[in-house]
Amino acid sequence: MITTQEFHVNLGPQHPSTHGVLKLNLVLDGEYIVDCEPVLGQLHRGMEKMAEGMHYGQFIPLTDRLDYLASAANNLAYVLAVEKLMGVEAPERAKYIRVIITELQRIASHLVAIGTWGLDLGAWTVMLYTFRDREMVLDLFEMYCGARLTLNCFRVGGTTYDFPPGFIEKLKEFLDVFPRRVDDYEALLTRNPIWLSRTKDVGVISAEDAVAYGLTGPNLRASGVNWDIRRVYPYEIYDRVEFDVPLGSRGDAFDRYMVRIQEMRQSCRIIKQALEQLPPGEVMLDLPTISLPDKRQFPNNFPAVVRHFHLLVQGYAPQEKEIYLGVENPKGELGFYIVSDGSAYPYRLKIRAPSFINLQILPKVLKGALLADVVCILASLDPVLGEVDR
Amino acid sequence: MALGLKDIGLAMELIRGIGVTVRHFFQPTVTIHYPKQRREPYPRFRGLVRWDKEKCAACVLCAHYCPVKAIQIVTGEGKEGQKEVLYYQIDAARCMYCGLCSEICPVGALSHSPYYELAVYERQDAVYAQERLAGEPPIIRYR
Ligand code: SF4
Ligand code: SF4
To answer: What three-state secondary structure class fits A260?
Structure first.
């Protein structure tokens, strides 16, 4: 007698299309997926625990390692959370610089998302073009702060650096060529019959499901839910710039692609306006309780030396309270929940990682999908495992 | 098999895609032939950390503040009773080039160099100590 039985397949963790060390335990009935269980935690580094043993300022470079494709955006989320905890606000120019850098970071992150997604579905060329253009963004970052991937460029109370000479010209050059480059990706993908048949009506997430599972970012907006923290709770200077929030209608993979493409265009628009409004002035707050003194006065100005050492050895202690602050990262809402017990170390630091929460809907979306579409659906959710596992 | 409108539409789209690729044939090359050509980093580039023994005040702030504890210092008493660094090492394999140490060093004894090709054959070669912390690092370059 012939019997049939379900077939178990492990996708990952060493699979190039899982975008990191994600493992999916799939149960198959023929080509169709019956069940899916994501196995997380292979990149777990204990970030939240590490934060408890560090000063508030020391943790900034570690936030780079959450979503490593958008490190400056993570820096911004953390720095804003600590600023809220301390009750301080960065100078105007610093706010503009932060927004320009994070919007560039959003472009870089979406470029990787679309490029690798194309690669997963066999569209090699797109990946080469997006990575070439991401290189221009990374060059700008290197010029600005010296690092290309893990920037560590924002501080509590401002930014470390001002724009170097020549930066703004180079940025304008990038803004001139970039929209044409986006047209190129669209020419390659948006109406390409193969791309359409692989993404249209694949991995459909309804608006109710998206809200119920707590999706954020482009994945939520592709389902037609108008929720962008930059718009709803504007932080930094987002209430002073004009931009549209691109929305999808069906919530399939293609809509998630379109939302990302249009967000890149909107980011360009934001940067252009921010550059026009960029005010002169300081980029770092001069507040004795949090900012380091100017090093040039050092050997002679003894109180400044004492303050320097005090801030770095003892750290600064916020009041005893708890705060939560979420910002719109390229992947969704990245939030930091910090509990302070009045010492210089956080009592507890919880990270609301967008990729982790976006991934929770995967078993539901994958049920009944074709095995060949798993890679497409996963890429359309754009998880970054550094953030999923923390 | 007769060609329908739909097929013509498909063909048009494929031609449009190929058009983009063909256009790129005539644009300048952007890749660098790496071992033969090297790209110069920008002035602020954060490469291998360098330490200046003459400037260092032996305050141990850098070792204390480094988030990953890549720096080790042993301090002691010098000939005239002053505090002095006896041993200083930076583990380049642990360092994450975050730039905090050079930012906080009160006398500017630490700096980032433009060196970025830091692969070594032995683990201990990645530990830069004492005199290896100044000047050009002994980097084995692939040719
Ligand atoms: S912080 Fe600077 S001066 Fe102090 S020990 Fe380190 S290198 Fe020397
Ligand atoms: S660059 Fe950062 S990780 Fe490296 S030694 Fe300095 S503080 Fe430590």
So the answer is: helix
